[in-house]
Amino acid sequence: MKNIPTSFREASASGKVSRGLALAAACVAACIFTGCTSGVKDTSRTFSGVVLDAGHGGHDSGTTSRYAGREKDATLDVVMRLRPKVAGAGFRTVMTRSDDTFIPLSTRAAISNRQSNVIFVSVHFNDTRRSAIRGTEVYYTSPCSAQIARNILNQIAAIPGASSRGIHTANFAVLRRAKYPAVLVECGFFSNPIEGRRCGSGAYRELLAEAIARGILIQRRGAGAMLAAE
Ligand SMILES: [Zn+2]
Description:
230 residues, alpha/beta
């Protein structure tokens, strides 16, 4: 996914730019006064299941890179590695896709929204024209999701050689429509020669999956929680 402009491209595609911006403004106002976006059920400390969303798929390849291939393949690989780790920690898992299929953003949100007591974790990779930029970013919309974003980011940033570009709020469609806490992980930049090559390797994607799983586990069970294999 291409950073912030993508969210507006998604919104634009459905002709809802101004409505989206108005909703975002309303959300920000609501968040300041209530601490939680209305319509989002705060399961961030109680969740028993995790919806795992591999970004893109089918005719939507996401970004492509000479260093790392197609984003849709990398996101699916991370999620396929992530699922058994999350399930092994005792959580129900639901995948929005488990093969190279195009799933509309609204369907991804709907799959999550019909679950009970879950959080939603979307996996993407980033790109930009400035090839020097690198690092992991985690996005969220509702403040209920901020701590999940922080925990996942901290775990990825702890991978040797990885770096953090922080957690950020964004109006991505897949987050905006979520009825449960939801985060979107931009694991790293395909456009950076070093990080791109790392993101293109199965070994690094295994580390990313471990880090995301650990972040989820820490969110639910506290800082001392460990994955089954640890
Ligand atoms: Zn993406």
